[in-house]
Amino acid sequence: MVAAGVKQTNSYNFLRKEIGFENINFTKRDCHNFLLIERDKMIEARDAQSIINFFKHKQAEDPLFFYSVQVDQNNRLANFFWRDERSKLDYDFFGDILVFDTTFRTNKYNLICAPFVGINNHWNNVLFGCAFLSNETTDSFFWLFETFLQAMGYQQPKSIFTDQDQAMMKATEMVFSKSSHRLCMWHISNNAKQHLASRFANSEFKAQFNKCFYQCESKAEFEYSLATMIEKFELEDHTWLKRLYELRAKWCPAFSMDVFSARTKSTQRSESMNNILHQIMDSSMSLIQVIRHYEEKAKEFRQEELNQDFRCKNGAPSKVNGRGILQHASNIYTLTMFKRFEEELMDSIGLNCIEGASDENYSLYQLTEDNHGRIYFVKFLLSNGNISCSCNMFETLGLLCRHALRVFVMNNVKEIPKPYILKRWTKRQNQYL
Question: Can you give the residue ranges of the SWIM-type domain (predicted)?
Answer without folding.
Answer: 376-412
